[in-house]
Predict the 3D structure of the following.
Amino acid sequence: SKLQNQDREIKRYKGLYSEIKSEQEQHSRELEAVSIQKADQSAVDELRGETEGLKAETGKISEKVSQTQSDVAQLRDMSAQNRDVIEGNQQALSSLSEKAESTAGDLALLRQSFDKEHYNFELQEKGGMMKVSDVALKLRDVNEKRQRYDLEIYTAGRKIRRKDQYLNEPIYFYVGDLEKPYEIVVTRIGKKFASGYLSVPKK
């Protein structure tokens, strides 16, 4: 990848930099030796010129290494930004998927509601039986504080007793030979009453 190539180039330049610096130090030592031995001025000038040239070359390589490191840093920043964008897109897709699943669930519930008839009721505690569609309901007990209730259901010559039911907790039961169940849901509980609806499958 481009990032790996940049890292290799940095290592190569650092190696050259080290070699040139070593040569520069060697020339400096030779220059000092020549000066001490009072060699002719031309040899001193030649060594001095080579040393200056090495210094210039070392500076260029140092600048090249710095530029390459800067390029690598920019590439890493771009890679990080790309990762953030990808993660953002993945989160958006996940959110869309969840919304699609939720919408599908809502549509399924809506289709089911079209296949049923709903009857609202309000039962009084110990107030006797109430006829709702083809069943009769009787509220035996209600606890407003705990939001619980006891209910009796009379249908097709039999009695169904449901005790300690929660608010909004559906009660399912079958009537006759129907394949789909009836459903009772109490949606409100007061001091001495409970109200809700009976859902009956269309025949």
Observations:
- The helical segments are 2-36, 41-114.
- The chain has two helices and eight strands.
- Strands lie at 116-124, 130-132, 135-143, 148-155, 158-166, 171-173, 182-189, 193-201.
